Amino acid sequence: MTSRPDALSNEAFADASGPSLNLAGKTVVVVGGKTGIGLGIAQAARAAGATVVVASRRIATPDERPDLAGYRQVRLDMSDESAVSGAFDGIGAFDHLVVTAAPDIGSWGAFQDADMRGVRAYVEGKFLGSWACARHGAPHIRPNGSITFLTGGMAVRPKIGFTAVTSAFAAVEALSASLALELAPLRVNTIRPGFVDTDMWGFLPEAQRQGLRQAVARNFPARRVGQPRDIGHAALFLMTNPYVTGTVVEVAGGENLVPSVG
Ligand SMILES: NC(=O)c1ccc[n+]([C@@H]2O[C@H](COP(=O)([O-])OP(=O)(O)OC[C@H]3O[C@@H](n4cnc5c(N)ncnc54)[C@H](OP(=O)(O)O)[C@@H]3O)[C@@H](O)[C@H]2O)c1
Predict the structure, then answer these.
(1) How far apart are CA 145 and CA 188, in angstroms?
(2) Ligand 1: which of 100, 169, 220, 251 to mutate, most ligand atoms within 8 Å of CB?
(3) Helix (H) or strand (E) holding 7
(4) What is the DSSP string of 160-205?
(5) What does the DSSP 8-state code read for residue 226?
(6) Hey, whose CA ends up nearest to atom 36 of ligand 1?
(7) Residue 96: which of 23, 159, 34 has the closest Cα?
């Protein structure tokens, strides 16, 4: 009589505690975690029990941001590699790195007329900034840790006038896959959000921003506007699931299935 392959499945699920979203005892560093999507991830990680470090160019005072009282703030400019290295040396050992930060999206004009200083600042900031955070953060990450990068739908759905964003996002996704191999067993993944209602959209006049929210809620299959906590939930999954690496998770309300609303 042939035995059923239960041994394998039992072994695979032998740890009754299994993967969970619990981050108790873990330290999470979120570069860009002071605002927007990064803050949504920082809040989700803290709610899951982690100690959370938020890193960006400027430390907010308690008067400015009383809501950051429970977080350690660290100064880090991802465009300056020696500053990135120094910031991670100061942070010390930790478990999970999330890099959401990006330079402001400039308006560079059409491809042929683009101001190359702006293009360089954006591509170097987003792509090589994410690279620098991984390079100098990884040596401090404890076993069973992870790195998560942030891109956006434009990585695969270009829009005229945003070639630098598409190119930088696609490069970050390629970096993510490459590091999942080279830094293994450290896990490396990317979240590709769709529209998320953050201050990144603050450059739009309020009426136009409201119109965009309404168009998203009307047209995206999820029939709602994305919130930073939606991306926070996905980041928890990527930090805690030990079998997910080298992948891109799209959290976009189905934006990929409908014509662009922007
Ligand atoms: N919101 C959306 O709809 C959406 C959709 C798709 C993709 N994305 C992408 O997701 C990422 C995060 O977006 P978001 O909406 O959270 O943006 P956000 O609210 O504008 O936040 C950006 C954060 O990055 C930090 N930062 C900026 N430049 C930095 C630098 N050189 N070094 C270190 N930190 C820096 C800022 O803090 P400081 O000012 O203190 O440095 C800020 O905390 C971006 O790459 C964005 O393109 C966003």
Answers:
(1) 9
(2) 100
(3) helix 6-12
(4) TT-HHHHHHHHHHHHHHHHHHHHTTTSEEEEEEE--B-SGGGGGS-
(5) B
(6) 32
(7) 23
CATH number of 24-200+227-250: 3.40.50.720
The tens-digit pLDDT sequence of the chain (262 residues) is 444 444 444 444 445 566 789 999 999 999 999 999 999 999 999 999 999 999 999 999 999 999 999 999 999 999 999 999 999 999 999 999 999 999 887 767 789 989 899 999 999 999 999 999 999 999 999 999 999 999 999 999 999 999 999 999 999 999 999 999 999 999 999 999 999 999 999 989 999 999 999 999 999 999 999 999 999 999 999 999 999 999 999 999 999 999 988 7
CA–CA gap between residue 260 and residue 239 (Å, rounded): 30
Q: Which residues pair with 248 in a beta bridge?
A: 190
**Centre of ligand 1 from the C-alpha of residue 199, in Å:** 9
Helix 116-123 and helix 163-182, axial crossing angle in degrees, nearest 10: 30
